[in-house]
């Protein structure tokens, strides 16, 4: 309450949808808190106020007084409700509804209040669960290396509701586990999917049950490639002469220990050939660091896996997403020309007649654009530039989202009067400026720039406002980019109109760079 809340744009430590974070503060400041919604009990804590009055729906009042209250005196010395000592760590909802007075006396050190009190009132589980395994069996007795099979098991709970962590051991070492929620008296049947690798016998075991003897047999497939490469990772955008970090994971899926020779190529030229010794079934992470000298798009290949990254030497070449023409050409795809091939999907929900508008995509309740997730769009640094040409067809009320990545990076209109921009979440602050008088039924270029600690908002190439932020944050986010909508509010904040030339840059563009883009794009914009 004292360190995470403040009276500024970032003063609430999280998303306050439906007032959740604000209500937490108010309840905590009163000294009572509903730990479990729906349970008619409140946990008792330390009030912030010397006195507070609750005006109840039934017309009664419940007054909370706190004697000797201060930041230092945070321990409850005594507590009375309507003059009677209260020794429990909870108070019932019915007691509050009766009205009356609750008096706290506070002190600097822990006193004797509520010593020995039973906190079980707040718990859903009044006693321990009583788990017992009944059986386990494998779906196969013999498997080849990397062949999938299933271990089925059953257990019963004779106690309170609880979660049992079912651990499966292979040759005495924990191999896999599964969390099973089991209700009182319930017979739970579940399974764990497995793969084994070393040729020979493997003993599988679940605590308290007889072991399962599995045989891993040699197969003809073992003469073929017996490794699998997964999780190829590279930084999507790298400035010229800086370092690029590349990593991948390789697993030996054969039945014997082996040394593998795995080439890594960039733009079809082999850069490394990694010689890796791996035990049967084991995985290894391989990492490389290279210096990026030449600008342009790079394509990394490792054993069939492909990853793209871009080396750039100026802000304008840090394009992550580039939609020059946003219209329906018949395949419901908006082409991305950034080099990352982050093509957008036109999402329809209305009549087929809407789809025939080939001059431009008319956004509205029946249509918006969603860009599937990709590493180049999701993994970012501290800066971003979002821009595009917007043609609103009618005046809107409430919030209207134009270019968004969830409720994290947003360009939006509010009540047809202002344009706002935030990046890294609205809770850290936003930049809001007035819309021009000719906003409706005209083309306008909008741009939001985050430099890390500053938000800037441009309309038609003119800097309309700045907002300074308290600190920098990593802008990585795994919501999808949407045009004309917001993934977190899919049926709300709907934009009605047209868009063109939407771009996302990793770098923060300057006024001069934005001016150069607008000058080049004016020829493509017609009233």
List the defining traits of the structure above.
single chain, 527 residues, mainly beta, GH92 mannosidase fold, Immunoglobulin-like, eight-stranded antiparallel β-sheet, six-stranded antiparallel β-sheet, 4 helices, 38 strands, flat
Topology:
Elements: H1 20-30, E1 32-33, E2 41-44, E3 51-55, E4 61-67, E5 75-81, E6 84-85, E7 90-92, H2 93-97, E8 100-107, E9 131-138, E10 142-143, E11 148-157, E12 162-170, E13 173-182, E14 187-195, E15 200-206, E16 212-216, E17 227-234, E18 237-239, E19 243-252, E20 258-266, E21 269-278, E22 283-291, E23 296-302, E24 305-312, E25 319-323, E26 333-334, E27 344-348, E28 367-371, H3 375-378, E29 384-392, E30 399-405, E31 409-414, E32 418-423, E33 431-434, E34 444-450, E35 454-459, E36 462-468, E37 481-483, E38 497-505, H4 511-521
Parallel strand pairs: 4-8, 10-16, 18-24
Antiparallel strand pairs: 1-2, 2-7, 3-4, 5-6, 5-8, 9-11, 11-14, 12-13, 12-15, 15-16, 17-19, 19-22, 20-21, 20-23, 23-24, 25-38, 26-27, 27-28, 28-37, 29-34, 29-38, 30-31, 30-37, 31-32, 32-33, 34-35, 35-36
Note down, in words, how this protein is organized:
The mean pLDDT is 91. The protein has an 8-stranded antiparallel sheet with strand order 26-27-28-37-30-31-32-33, with no helix packed on it. A 6-stranded antiparallel sheet has the order 25-38-29-34-35-36, with helices on one face. Strands 3-4-8-5-6 form a 5-stranded mixed sheet, with no helix packed on it. The protein is flat. The chain contains 4 helices and 38 strands. The protein folds into 4 domains: 106 residues, GH92 mannosidase domain (GH92 mannosidase fold), CATH 3.30.2080.10; 86 residues, Immunoglobulins (Immunoglobulin-like); 88 residues, Immunoglobulins (Immunoglobulin-like); 209 residues, Sandwich (Jelly Rolls). 6% of the residues lie in helices and 46% in strands. It is mainly beta. The relative contact order is 0.08.
